[in-house]
C-alpha cells in the first residue's frame, strides 16, 4: 500500500515533536508498505526545523521520506502561526494533482492538529482515487474555544469548525488518540461507526538507550540522587494547561524533607513558573533534552508528575506521550488529571490526586517517600508492563494499518 500522511508538524526523534507520524511510518515500512510524510519546513514544536531551498523538496528523515513545504516563520501563537498554516494548506491544495501523480497514494491521512488540512487531503485523495482518513488529535475548534475563550462566531472558529465538519463527513475512517472521541463525534451529529481508537505509544528500544555523549541534565540529576535527594520530575512543555503551578506550590510544603521537584523542558509559561518558584530551593528547572536522552534522564527520577488543568476537553479522554514515557521508565506517577480515562489507575502505577491541590501533591510525594523501595519499584513496574502491553508502537501501527485496509 502507498500511504501519504499529511502532518504539518511532523518531526522525528532527532528533530523533535511531533514524533508519532515518523514512528508510525517506520513501522509501516517494516511491514512492507510505502510511506511519504508531507510536513512544513517550520513549526514552533520542533527543536530542529528543516532548511529547504523550495517547497516540495524531498528529504530523507532517518529512513522515512518527507516532502517539505516552505512556510513563513513565526513566533508565538499569533497571526504568524495562522499565515504559516494557511501557506501550508493552500500550497498543498494548489499542487494536489502533482502530489497525487507523483506519490500515487492508496490512502491519504489528514493528521495535522488543526482540521483544515482535510480540504487538500480530500482533493489529493480524489485525484489519486485513494481512500481518505482523518486522524483526530486535539479537539479543534473546541480547544481554542475553551483555552482561548473564543466564541463560536469568531471567524477562526468558523473556519476550524468547517474543517472538522468536512473531516467527519468525508473520511472513510476517523482515527483518534482519544479513547472517548466517539462521544464527541456523536455529539457533533456524525457517524461513530467510522471511529477507531489508536492511542499514543512508546518505543521499546528507548528503555535501554544510553546517549552517545554525556548529557548535563542527566549528570545533574545523577549527582543529586547520589547525594540522597528524592527526585520527582516533570518533563515536557511548560504551559498553562499542564498545571505546573500546583507542582511548584507543593514544594513549599516539602521543605522539611530531602526532596527536589524537577521541571525539564521549555515553553511560553516557563518564565512565569520560574518567577513563581523564586526562593524555593527545592525546585529545579532544567533545559529540555533530546528524545534520545529521555530514557536516561527518567532513570534518575524517583517519581514523576503528570498534571492538567481542569477542562471539559478531557471529558473525551487523554493520551499523553509524557505519561507513557514515565510508565515505560517504570516510574511511579503522581497523576493530577480529571478525564474520562485514567491510565495510572488502570495500570496501578501511581497515585491519583485532585486537580489544583498542592497539598494533595505534597502528600502524594510523602506517601511515595515513605514506601519501602520494593513496593515503589513494583508500582513503577506495573506501569511498564501496562504500556508494553497496550501502547507499543509496532502493535499500534498494525492496528492503524488494519483501519486503513478495512
From TrEMBL:
Gene3D superfamilies registered for this protein in UniProt: Glycogen Phosphorylase B
Q: What GO MF annotations does this protein's record show?
A: transferase activity
The answer to whether the entry has keyword Zinc is no
Q: Name one Pfam family in it.
A: Glyco_trans_1_4
Glycosyltransferase subfamily 4-like N-terminal domain boundaries: 16-201
Which domain of life does the UniProt lineage start with? Bacteria
Q: Give the keywords, sorted.
A: Transferase
Can you say what this protein is called?
Glycosyl transferase group 1
Q: Which organism is it from?
A: Ethanoligenens harbinense (strain DSM 18485 / JCM 12961 / CGMCC 1.5033 / YUAN-3)
Amino acid at each position: 500500500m502507498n500511504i501519504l500522511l499529511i502532518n504539518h508538524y511532523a518531526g522525528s526523534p532527532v528533530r523533535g515533536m511531533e514524533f508519532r507520524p515518523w514512528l508510525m511510518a517506520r513501522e509501516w515500512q517494516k511491514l512492507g508498505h510505502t510511506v511519504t510524510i508531507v510536513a512544513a519546513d517550520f513549526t514552533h514544536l520542533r527543536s530542529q526545523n528543516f532548511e529547504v531551498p523550495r517547497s516540495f523538496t524531498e528529504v530523507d528523515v532517518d529512513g522515512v521520506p518527507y516532502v517539505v513545504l516552505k512556510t513563513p516563520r513565526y513566533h508565538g501563537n499569533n497571526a504568524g502561526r495562522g499565515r504559516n498554516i494557511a501557506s501550508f494548506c493552500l500550497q498543498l491544495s494548489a499542487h494536489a494533482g502533482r502530489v497525487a501523480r507523483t506519490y500515487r497514494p492508496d490512502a491519504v491521512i489528514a493528521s495535522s492538529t488543526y482540521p483544515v488540512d482535510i480540504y487538500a487531503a480530500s482533493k489529493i485523495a480524489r485525484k489519486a482515487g485513494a481512500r481518505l482518513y482523518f486522524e483526530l488529535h486535539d479537539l479543534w475548534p473546541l480547544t481554542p474555544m475553551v483555552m482561548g475563550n473564543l466564541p463560536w462566531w469568531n471567524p477562526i472558529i468558523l473556519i476550524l469548525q468547517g474543517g472538522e465538519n468536512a473531516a467527519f463527513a468525508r473520511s472513510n475512517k476517523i482515527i483518534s488518540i482519544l479513547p472517548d472521541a466517539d462521544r464527541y463525534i456523536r455529539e457533533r451529529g456524525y457517524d461513530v461507526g467510522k471511529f477507531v481508537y489508536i492511542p499514543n505509544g512508546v518505543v521499546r528500544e528507548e528503555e535501554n538507550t544510553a546517549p552517545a555523549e554525556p548529557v548535563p541534565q542527566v549528570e545533574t540529576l545523577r549527582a543529586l540522587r547520589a547525594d540522597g535527594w528524592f527526585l520527582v520530575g516533570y518533563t515536557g512543555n511548560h504551559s498553562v494547561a499542564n498545571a505546573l503551578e500546583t507542582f511548584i506550590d507543593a514544594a513549599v510544603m516539602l521543605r522539611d524533607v530531602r526532596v527536589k521537584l524537577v521541571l525539564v523542558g521549555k515553553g511560553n509559561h516557563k518564565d512565569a513558573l520560574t518567577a513563581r518558584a523564586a526562593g524555593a530551593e527545592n525546585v529545579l528547572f532544567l533545559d529540555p533534552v533530546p528524545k534520545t536522552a529521555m530514557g536516561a534522564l527518567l532513570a534518575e527520577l524517583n517519581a514523576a508528575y503528570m498534571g492538567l488543568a481542569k477542562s471539559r476537553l478531557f471529558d473525551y479522554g487523554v493520551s499523553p506521550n509524557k505519561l507513557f514515557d514515565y510508565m515505560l521508565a517504570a516510574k511511579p506517577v503522581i497523576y493530577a488529571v480529571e478525564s474520562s480515562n485514567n491510565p495510572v489507575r488502570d495500570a496501578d502505577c501511581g497515585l491519583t490526586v485532585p486537580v489544583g491541590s498542592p497539598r494533595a501533591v505534597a502528600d502524594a510525594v510523602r506517601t511515595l517517600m515513605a514506601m519501602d523501595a520494593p513496593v515503589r519499584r513494583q508500582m513503577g513496574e506495573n506501569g511498564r508492563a501496562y504500556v508494553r502491553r497496550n501502547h507499543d508502537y509496532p502493535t499500534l501501527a498494525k492496528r492503524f494499518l488494519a483501519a486503513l485496509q478495512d
